[in-house]
Amino acid sequence: MPNNTDIHRRKIETAQSGTARAALLGISDGLVTNVSLILGVAAAGADAGLVRVAGIASLIAGACSMAVGEYISMRGQVELLESVLEIEREELRSNPKTAHESLEKVLIDDGVSKETAHTASVEIGKNPEKAMAVYARGKLGINPSELGAAWGAAWSSFITFSIGAFVPLIPWFGLKGASAVYASLGLSALAALGIGSYLGYMTSGRILWPALRQLLVLILAAAATFLIGHFFHTSIT
């Protein structure tokens, strides 16, 4: 059985992970985007075949767009952080005395006594990479080992967006008309509640409000496109 420390550590790792962020954003975005599009197209009077084509096209286009966006965003973030770390690393290499003083200050700011901080900074300074890690976390708030993975975020976003976008499509492979609309909305609502519950559990530990908030966002988005589609054509048979 995992203890509270393990649970908290996993939550922190999830929050700091670009891949986890991309996954949560991807599945939520895929679900909201495709249920909105599907209901809008259906409300405009399209038959089940056209709804399926539109939904699949939206799934593919959205998943690719999300993946490319996540890759570019994460890659840019990683390159920026790497450039900052390289500048600081060069400074530590070229000015070892300044490096020790900086490390000592970081430790003192963390609550370590001056004598202990001095001894620890000298010891840590013997290992340049370890010194860099302590310095980066303390002064810059950057963990060199957790800069993020651009490809991981891209694939995570692509896969989870596809899953989220596929949920409202499922009923349209066996149903049509109003039955498919209601089934699509029902499945999407359940998925939204699940996503909100998980997000709430991983953050505040509260489930009900995050789940209802996710459901509300879904309903508002779906209602907007449904009304627009209904305005252009009122027949759903």
Description:
By secondary structure, the chain is mainly α. The chain has two domains: 22-76 and 149-231, no CATH class; 86-140, no CATH class. The chain contains nine helices and no strands. The protein has helices at 4-16, 18-43, 48-94, 96-109, 114-124, 128-140, 150-166, 177-202, 208-232.
In a nutshell, what does this entry contain?
By secondary structure, this protein is mostly helical. Helix 3 packs across helix 4. It has nine helices and no strands.
Average per-residue pLDDT, rounded, comes to 80
Coarse morphology = elongated
Number of helices: 9
Percentage of residues assigned to helices: over 70%
Strand/helix succession: HHHHHHHHH
Number of β-strand runs: 0
Q: Please state roughly what percent of the residues sit in beta strands, choosing from under 5%, 5-15%, 15-25%, 25-35%, 35-45% or over 45%.
A: under 5%
Mind summarizing the main beta sheet? none
Low-confidence stretches: none
Number of domains: 2
Radius of gyration: 25 Å
Distance between the termini: 52 Å
* Overall SS class: mainly alpha
Describe how the helices and strands are arranged.
Blueprint: H1 4-16, H2 18-43, H3 48-94, H4 96-109, H5 114-124, H6 128-140, H7 150-166, H8 177-202, H9 208-232
Helix pairs in contact: 2-3, 2-7, 2-8, 2-9, 3-4, 3-7, 4-5, 4-6, 8-9
